[in-house]
Structures are given as structure tokens and as C-alpha cells.
Design goal:
This protein is mainly alpha-helical. The chain is built from 28 helices and 8 strands. The relative contact order is 0.10.
């Protein structure tokens, strides 16, 4: 009865604090007693951390940090769910904690840190409700593997190994044994894995070599989803409008849809044939393509009951896509069309003509970035702080900042009474007064874990970065010899490479266009061609470095070492074996492998300290090797002077240049 009356606490303001404290202590005693009966140490830690939450959070504004740690500990304690599967008290407890987190979030300096924990608490509330029998299907959490890594580390090969029938079947069978008893099975199963691409360029048709798509043979051997499902911008358009505006949000929806189809999970939430046609034309066409491929590769079995669940592997290196998938979508405002056009014009006004020599272009770009970033920073303190955090010359995110700024200013101005809108300083005043939470609160939602999946994230990390960078250089040469310049030329002539499109910004196509559109080109120019080759390889290595830096900061990814000195087949099998073993752990044991609280200055990654977990050791070694990468010397293997391959490549480059320059 007391629990039912908790929702009416706000009606008694004079006794609110006393009743809340007494109720929390009553509920907390139940949690502590139940957890003390267990031998799980992290479980006890969660209970006592929650005790700290109740003791201090209402007495000090600094309590938000204690609240954050407590909610994190409680949210990660999967055993706690097991011990309270039939307890509605625990579900109510989580609801109270979420309410308290919301109150704490409004405190000074507390909102940004607490917002992410509010999402996890909301998810826990749903999980507790399902564990009490409100939704029996949710008790089983299908496994989803997320496989990231820098370019040229071997992600596709490791994914193919994991997707083989024998390994995928063993992973799913053993993973089910770690699930709640209702989801366990002793029957023999036979399945395989499917790859879902997490590459922002592979989704486009006709963009093959630069996107490094898997070959036809590889796709026949292992099903790959979200490849060749969208037309590039302007291609096949009768009215001259962009055919595609594919973005991370579209990719997120497509990925979850495919995963639900593969895992047979939560059929009630699927989009049926009638609902799909209420979507926009582009989404309808894309979904039809996705469904066609799904039906073809699922052995053409119409009834799902007649087949086994498939192991989904999300594989790629697009950092923003994977961050959205694992952590959820951010709450950034959607820009207006006017804001997008205005921001694009502002950025274009700073960027210089690309028809310059390499040295002139580099100097012009540096100057343009300095001026553009200074302009955006001058809009207000919030924008200055955001610009300072941008990595390199990130024109895309700089433009996005402007889009958000102009959009927020537009809506605020619209809310101003008509007789005051004539004030020319309205926009500048609004932008200078904006707070960080008005632009981006830090709240994320809609991750795969929120949807009820057991997501295991891995990052394939080269154990020797020098060797890996040489492999990257070889990959770039291979792409050029396969015809990257010819493909870029065909796309450009077809109007499929409009300025600032996703494909045009992609590494490989961007450098190829700069080379083909260079000012006053001469034929048989070895120096210009080799400079382009070096620029392409350098940009690719820098992107690989950025990928490693990005994922080292993500605590959800387990770093798996890849020995670049070993035979390719051996290192692929070894990496797949480690990943398969970690997928068969319970969720608690897997989370324990993610602990990376080490002192980089005092810890030697090459030592024989067995207490250092494999992921922590790999992260540390990767970080420490970065200091020596300034001594890396790039070396071409095939496109060298006097080689036939270089002469043929240059002749093809000259032909592509003539075609491009003829319509320039």
C-alpha cells in the first residue's frame, strides 16, 4: 500500500522530504538484505553504493556524482536482476531512482553527467518490468556482435570467420546458456552469421573501389546487408533533386530492423507491409531492397518458426554510426533547410579554390580553416568551446555547428513579438546567450541495448602500429591499381559526386577529385601523380589513427590484439577465437573484461603482469606506441619509379584527367 501511495507524494509538500527518505530507506533495506545473501561482490558493491546515494544525495549539490556512480553500479549488476526477477518492489525502486536522477540533473553542473545515467535507469526500469513476467519474450536478450577496427586491420576476414556455421552456432548455443532459465535451450541448433555493414559509403550503389566493398565471392560466402541499397546523390534523378539524403538516423533504423529480422526478436514491433508505405519514398525503396535481400539469404523460408535465429555482426569503421548504435542517438536539433543553405554558404565563403599546387593548397586550407573556425567561435562562448574540441580540419562538424546555431536562433526569433523582431542584434544576442544544454544536453537514447539486445563490442587493434601503417599504404596502392581514379571519373561525369556529399568527402574520392581537378595539369606528370598517391595514403593513415584514438576512449569496446607480423589466416583465426570465447561469457564476466582503470605513465604494456586484462593491455600498448609513430616512413611497394604498374597507372590517370578537365 505504501508503494502505491508514492506517486501521490507531491500532493503533500510539507512532508515530501520526510516521506521520500523513509520510503527510500524501506526499499533500500530490501535490496541490501537480498544482496547480502548473495556471494557476488559487485552485487554487494551496488547495494552499498545505493546506500551512499540515499544518505548523501539530498544533502549536497555534489551528490550528483555519488548518484551517478551508484546508478552505474546498479545498472551494470545483471545478477541483481536475477535475484529480483519476481520483485515489483525492485521495479518501483528503479522508478524512484530515475525520478531522483531527473531532479539531480537540474542541479548546477550536474545535468550533463547525469543525463546519460537517466537513459540507463529508464532501460533498467523496462528490464525489471519484463523480468516480473510482463513480457516473457524480453527475458531472452539476443546476442549482437559489433566489430570495429582501423582500416586494413582485417575486419571483413575476422567477421567472415565468425559467421561460419560452426563458430556462429557454437556462439549462439553457449550464449543462450548464460541467459535466464526460461531462454536456455538444450536442443541442438544450426545457424550462421550475417554481416551488417557499418560503413557510411558502402551503402551507395556504384561506389565500390573507394568504399573497399567486399567482393562478389565474399558476399556469396557470407551475407552482407546494407551494401548497395541507396543511389548516390543526383544519380538516376529525373527532376535534378538529390536522390539520397541517407544519414546516421536512417542507418540506425535500418540496422535495428535487419537485426530484429535475423534474430526473430520482438515481432510485434516490426513494420508491416501496410505501415511501410506511410514512410517517405526513399525509405520505402530502401526497405524493399533490404527485404528482398533478407528473403533471398534466409533460405527463402517464409515462416520464421521454421528457421533458427541468425547471429548478426555489425562490422565497420564509421565512428559516428557505431557510437549511435552502442550508446544511442544524441538529442541534437534537426536544422531547417534555410539554416543548412546558409551554413553551407558561410563555409564556402572561407574555402579557397582547389586549383592550386599541393603546397599552395595546403597553406590555403590551413588559412581557411583558421578563419572559419574563428568566425564560428566568435558567435558565443558555447561555440568557442565546441570549436576547440574539433579534431583537425573537420569542416563537416564545423558546418553542423552553424546549422544548429542558425536553427536555434531562427526558432527563438520566431517566438519574439513582431514589434521587436526588427532589432538587428537579435540573432547575435541570442547566440551569445545560448547555454550548452540548449545545443546538446548529452542525452542519448535508442541504443541496441535499450531495445533489449545483448551487445558485445570489439575493436580489432594492431599490436604493431608500424606494420599496420605499411599495410595501409599497400591497401591504398591496391585501390589505385584496381581503378579508383577511373571510378571517381565515372561518378563525377554522372553527377554522383556533388560538393560536400558523403561520397565526395570520403577518403580516396576526395584526394582523387583534388588530383583530377588540379589547376593547369600536364600529361605524364610523375611528380603530381606520386604526390597524390602520398596524400591518399597519408589521409588514410591519419583516419586509422583517429579510429584508434576514438575507440580507446569508448569503455564499451573490448580491444582484441591482431598480430600484424603473423600469417593473415593465422591472425584471423586467433582474433575470431578470442572474440568467440568472450561472447560465450556471462554479461557480468564480459563487463569485467572491459575494465581499463590503469595508470599509463606507470604501467608497461609489454610486461608479464598477468593481472592486466587483454583489452586493457592492448589499449595501453596501442597508446604507448603512438609516441613512436612520428618516426614512421612511408614506402611504396608497387607504384615505384620505372615500374610497369606506375607507367600504366599514370597513363590511366592522364586519360581520366582529360575527361574531367574537358567539362570543368
Amino acid at each position: 500500500m505504501r508503494l502505491k501511495n508514492l506517486s501521490t507524494i507531491n500532493r503533500a509538500p510539507y512532508f515530501q522530504i520526510i516521506i521520500i527518505r523513509l520510503s527510500r530507506l524501506f526499499l533500500l533495506s530490501i535490496v541490501v538484505i537480498s544482496t547480502l545473501l548473495a556471494s557476488d561482490v559487485p552485487l554487494r558493491a551496488a547495494a552499498f553504493a545505493t546506500l551512499k546515494l540515499d544518505s548523501f544525495s539530498y544533502f549536497s549539490t555534489s551528490g550528483y556524482s555519488i548518484c551517478a556512480r551508484s546508478l552505474s553500479s546498479l545498472g551494470r549488476s545483471h545478477n541483481l536482476r536475477e535475484y529480483t526477477q519476481n520483485s515489483h518492489l525492485m521495479f518501483r525502486r528503479v522508478q524512484l531512482m530515475k525520478k531522483q536522477a531527473s531532479q539531480m540533473a537540474s542541479m548546477a553542473n550536474g545535468k550533463k553527467r547525469m543525463s546519460s545515467y537517466m537513459n540507463s535507469i529508464d532501460y533498467d526500469a523496462k528490464r525489471y518490468s519484463t523480468s516480473t513476467g510482463l513480457d516473457k519474450q524480453q527475458q531472452h536478450r539476443p546476442l549482437v556482435i559489433v566489430l570495429a577496427g582501423p582500416t586494413a586491420v582485417g575486419k571483413s576476414d575476422v567477421a567472415a570467420e565468425l559467421c561460419s556455421s560452426s563458430i556462429a552456432t557454437d556462439i549462439i548455443f553457449r550464449h543462450r546458456q548464460t541467459q535466464p532459465r526460461q531462454a536456455q535451450t538444450s536442443q541442438q541448433i544450426e545457424t550462421r552469421g550475417h554481416v551488417i555493414s557499418a560503413d557510411s559509403v558502402q551503402v551507395y550503389r556504384g561506389v565500390d573501389i573507394g568504399a573497399n566493398k567486399p567482393s562478389v565471392e565474399e558476399r556469396e560466402r557470407t551475407p552482407h546487408h546494407l551494401i548497395d541499397v541507396v543511389d548516390p546523390p543526383n544519380q538516376a534523378s529525373k527532376k535534378g533533386k538529390k536522390v539520397s539524403s541517407y544519414n546516421a538516423a536512417d542507418w540506425m533504423r535500418d540496422v535495428e530492423y535487419i537485426i530484429r529480422q535475423l534474430t526473430l526478436f520482438d515481432d510485434n514491433n516490426e513494420i508491416d507491409d501496410n505501415q511501410i508505405y506511410t514512410l517517405d519514398t526513399e525509405t520505402v525503396a530502401r526497405r524493399e531492397c533490404i527485404n528482398t535481400f533478407l528473403h533471398e539469404r534466409l533460405d527463402e523460408q517464409i515462416h520464421k518458426d521454421s528457421r533458427e535465429s541468425v547471429l548478426p555482426l555489425v562490422v565497420g569503421g564509421t565512428m559516428m554510426y557505431l557510437t549511435w548504435l552502442v550508446h544511442g542517438r544524441p538529442d541534437a536539433i534537426r536544422p531547417t533547410t534555410e539554416a543548412v543553405n546558409r551554413a553551407s554558404n558561410v563555409i564556402s565563403s572561407f574555402q579557397k579554390d582547389s586549383g592550386l599546387t599541393h603546397n599552395e593548397q595546403e597553406s590555403a586550407e590551413e588559412s581557411a580553416w583558421k578563419d572559419a573556425s574563428a568566425y564560428v567561435a566568435s558567435l558565443g562562448p558555447v561555440f568557442s568551446d565546441r570549436v576547440s574540441k574539433l579534431c583537425g580540419r573537420d569542416w563537416y562538424r564545423l558546418r553542423r555547428l552553424l546549422e544548429v546555431a542558425f536553427t536555434i536562433a531562427y526558432y527563438k526569433i520566431q517566438s519574439i513579438p513582431g514589434d521587436e523582431k526588427s532589432n538587428s542584434n537579435n540573432e547575435s544576442d541570442i547566440l551569445r546567450s545560448l547555454t550548452d544544454s540548449e545545443i546538446y544536453t548529452g542525452i542519448r537514447s535508442g541504443s541496441l541495448s535499450d531495445a533489449g539486445f545483448d551487445v558485445r563490442c570489439f575493436f580489432l587493434c594492431p599490436n604493431e602500429r608500424m606494420s599496420h601503417f605499411h599495410t595501409v599504404d599497400q591497401r591504398c596502392e591496391e585501390m589505385l591499381l584496381k581503378g579508383l581514379l577511373r571510378e571517381t571519373t565515372n561518378l563525377y561525369l554522372a553527377g554522383a559526386l556533388p560538393e560536400d556529399s558523403q561520397v565526395t568527402r570520403a577518403i580516396g574520392y576526395r584526394q582523387a577529385l583534388e588530383y583530377l581537378l588540379r589547376k593547369d595539369p600536364t600529361m605524364n606528370d610523375y611528380a603530381a601523380f606520386l604526390s597524390f598517391v602520398d596524400d591518399f595514403a597519408t589521409a588514410t593513415r591519419q583516419y586509422a589513427k583517429k579510429q584508434m584514438q576514438w575507440f580507446r576512449k569508448d569503455s564499451e569496446f573490448a580491444f582484441i590484439p591482431v598480430d600484424m607480423e603473423r600469417d593473415k589466416a593465422e591472425r584471423v583465426r586467433e582474433a575470431a577465437k578470442v572474440i568467440a570465447g568472450m561472447c560465450q561469457l556471462s554479461r557480468n564476466d564480459f563487463d569485467a573484461q572491459l575494465i581499463t582503470s590503469i595508470d599509463e605513465e606507470k604501467t608497461d604494456a609489454t610486461s608479464s603482469d598477468e593481472t592486466l586484462l587483454i583489452s586493457a593491455r592492448t589499449k595501453l600498448l596501442n597508446s604507448q606506441q603512438g609516441k613512436g609513430m612520428k618516426f614512421f616512413i612511408s614506402k611504396r611497394e608497387r607504384l615505384v619509379m620505372d615500374s610497369i604498374e606506375l607507367r600504366n597507372a599514370l597513363a590511366d590517370a592522364d586519360e581520366c584527367t582529360r575527361l574531367i578537365q574537358s567539362i570543368k
